Amino acid sequence: MNAEAIREYAHLMRELDLTGLEVNENGATIRLERGKAEEDVSKPQEAAVDMKEEKGSLITSPMVGVFYTSPEENAEPYVKKGDKVRKGDTLCLIESMKLLNEITADRDGIILEVLGKNATVVGFGTPLFRISEGL
């Protein structure tokens, strides 16, 4: 991995306000870390402990990135509280490394709660939605 690529990853970390990034490329692994981000992404994770007693289950972020509830600014969100979803329906987008990744429902259910806040940084395992078991 060359210095230019490392600079690009460092720039991405600043842009997304990430505190850490690990990249595997051509058999080489590099881990970049910086001071704590302004937004504390651990708060939603603490909320997950409290929600275990509530009905439904959590859909969590599979990656670090910026959480978006809709396909573009000022558009209707993909889902909102009370919406019925089918397995494979798009729930949100997470922008990571300048790529938009669709996060889809892993089962049929009803959105009980939208936990993620639009246009904020989320980490691995950050709760995004609480969904019922079945329709």
TrEMBL record:
Protein name: Biotin carboxyl carrier protein of acetyl-CoA carboxylase
GO MF annotation: an example: acetyl-CoA carboxylase activity
Pathway: Lipid metabolism; fatty acid biosynthesis
Recorded coiled-coil stretches: none
Function as written in the Swiss-Prot or TrEMBL entry: This protein is a component of the acetyl coenzyme A carboxylase complex; first, biotin carboxylase catalyzes the carboxylation of the carrier protein and then the transcarboxylase transfers the carboxyl group to form malonyl-CoA.
Alphabetical list of Pfam families matching this protein: Biotin_lipoyl
A cellular-component GO term for this protein: acetyl-CoA carboxylase complex
Alphabetical UniProt keywords: Biotin, Fatty acid biosynthesis, Fatty acid metabolism, Lipid biosynthesis, Lipid metabolism
Biological processes annotated in GO: fatty acid biosynthetic process
Region (Disordered), start-end ranges: 35-54
Species of provenance: Candidatus Ornithospirochaeta stercoravium
InterPro entries, per the entry: AcCoA_biotinCC, Biotin_Carboxyl_Carrier/Decarb, Biotin_lipoyl, Single_hybrid_motif
Keyword Lipid biosynthesis annotated: yes
Domain Lipoyl-binding, residue spans: 56-132
